[in-house]
Amino acid sequence: MTSHHGHHHRTPADAAPGPYRLDITPADAGWQHSALRVLELPPRGSHRFDTGDSEWIVLPLSGGCGVNADGETFLLDGRASPFTAVTDFAYVPRDAHVRIDSSAGGRFALAGARCTERLPARYGPASGVPVELRGAGNCSRQVNNFAAADVFEADRLIAVEVLTPGGNWSSYPPHKHDEHRPGEESELEEIYYFEIAPHDGTEGVGYQRVTPSGRGAGTDVLAEVRTGDAVLIPDGWHGPSIAAPGHAMYYLNVMAGPDTERRWLIRDHPDHAWIRRSWRDQEIDPRLPLTTAREETPR
């Protein structure tokens, strides 16, 4: 049985015709800040867009590209897929015109956040992305903190990648960030974008759960997710993200919110927070890290 696709579970079939496999805007999501587009370019393809009132990160999912903004061009080596390497990326500010060119073609995530400050366009090397191994046992996962709040400067946007080996649970214990509690919890809207590794040519699936927290609109989601799907999380306890045995799961987390300080502060679900203590006596899954930054070509 496949999940019922509702407002919070988006698939490529929901996208309007055009270059974007997914196009999630704040207005479309029914919130104020977070945005995600997934751009597909054919060989020698090109795409132009205006950043408007949002800052964006161009993140290669498959393939490489050139990103031109504010009179600068950043050449992104990219990668074959999220399961082969940590990638480089480019940050482009609000109120800019951007051109993306790809000689071999590819798939590129545009992670965005409405913002007020205009920061300089910048290149983020793959070698500078902190790779964190989080959890232990069957809750082990890899987090590529390429645009975490304490790693890469942005006005509102926070973005990280998570890789979960097949059979493991990530985004666990369930946690939330849907209210502003100084020093304890941030208020952040979040998008999960998924890709699932195939096995011997067979497409994989994973599962994403969101349960009501008593805040916001009472978001309640159980989604069977496939490559190209996204789940919108305006509020609620989110997790687990479950990778089916034999199929590693990738997701890109895009977050932004109204708090004046850009921080990722979460509160664990009180019924499940105990699981963290159990990790002290377990090893990290030996399959991790699934990916690292490959040797970059000199630029």
From TrEMBL:
- UniProt-listed Gene3D superfamilies: Jelly Rolls
Q: Among its keywords, does the record have ATP-binding?
A: no
InterPro entries the record matches: Deoxy-glucuronate_isom_IolB, KduI/IolB_isomerase, RmlC-like_jellyroll, RmlC_Cupin_sf
Quote the EC number.
5.3.1.30
Task: List the residue ranges of the region (Disordered).
Answer: 1-21
Give GO terms: molecular function aspect only.
5-deoxy-D-glucuronate isomerase activity
Q: Where is the composition biased (Basic residues)?
A: 1-10
Ordered alphabetically, the record's keywords are: Isomerase
Query: NCBIfam families under this entry?
Result: myo_inos_iolB
Q: What name does the UniProt record give this protein?
A: 5-deoxy-glucuronate isomerase
What organism is listed for this UniProt entry?
A: Streptomyces hazeniae
